[in-house]
Amino acid sequence: MFKKWGISAAALLLTAAVILPACSSKQEPKEALKAAATKATTMTSYEMKSKFVMNNLTIDEGASEADGMTTQILSMMKNAEITVDGVYQAKPMQTEATMVLNLKGDMAMSFTVPMVITPEKVFIKIPSIPLVPLPETLVGKFLELDLKALAEQEGTEFNPATLDTQKAQKLSNEVLDTLMAEYDEAKYFKNIDVKDAKLPEGVDAKQVIQFQVTNDNIKEAITILINNALPKIIDIVGKEEYKEMLQIDAADLAEAKTELQSGDTRAELDKGLADLGKYLTINQFHFNTAINKDDFPVYQDIVMDIKVSDPEQGTNVGISMTGSNQYSKINEKPVFKIGIPKGDDVVSMEELQEQFGVMGSY
């Protein structure tokens, strides 16, 4: 069952991932998105707010009864919320972000994880986690991960190019352009009125573009993605300029492209799409991009409400979630609230392991 609907789920997520990280008078939707994506490459600093909410997650196993663990997990995940507030600057590269995870249900819990990223190090503040006893000497300190030292321990050479955010944005733009070129504007893209977009306070947009997938166009959307767009995207990923950043073997890419275009893969895709209606129902799936007067993509949100079924097993999985990204203070002098941890505020991986070793000896 999962094999039959997995292609569609992956396609939806891939499309969302590409366009989310995506303009003056209104432009046509695809033209406006391309212009905004290009403009995004000039973002040298910004503040960001992200939010993800699992509005509902259900598993109906028909005649079988869900075990206690499954029921507990579902209870925790329903209305679970993750938020990330961050600040970024390109040169010198520095990012700080604070992630907050709120779980609901009978096992409700909440914890906050601040983190700082520099060209060679990552600092993660050790939180106090309910039900996970941690030494008081560790809680509240920043665990320092030396990326260069970790690479050496693994017998590899640290490559700072893997953290080149501006090159990553350039790659994202190329992928976005390729992807959008394959989809018909009238079927998949549209402008929506700013006042109907439910933008949060503080977001001043001149144009909002929506990309939407429905039960009527999902089969065509997946076919276009796999047959037309993905082979071209593989070629983009394989470009020499992205080689260092992605660390992907050219032979693996060539093999993936060959397999994607093989007759067996096409036949399997056609078979899966023919019965797609039995396995996947899209109640709602769209994402919006709000563009401000300076052509920056300042807000994106996604709404997904789908049902995945296995008629043979009598299993139905319902997933409903929303997510959003908001950018502000673009290209202004960034204000870092955490800064780069140092001194007694920092604990190394070796010290962390020693502390856990002491705990295990009792």
UniProtKB/TrEMBL annotation:
Span of the signal peptide: 1-22
Entry keywords, A to Z: Signal
Keyword set includes Signal: yes
Name assigned to this protein: Lipoprotein
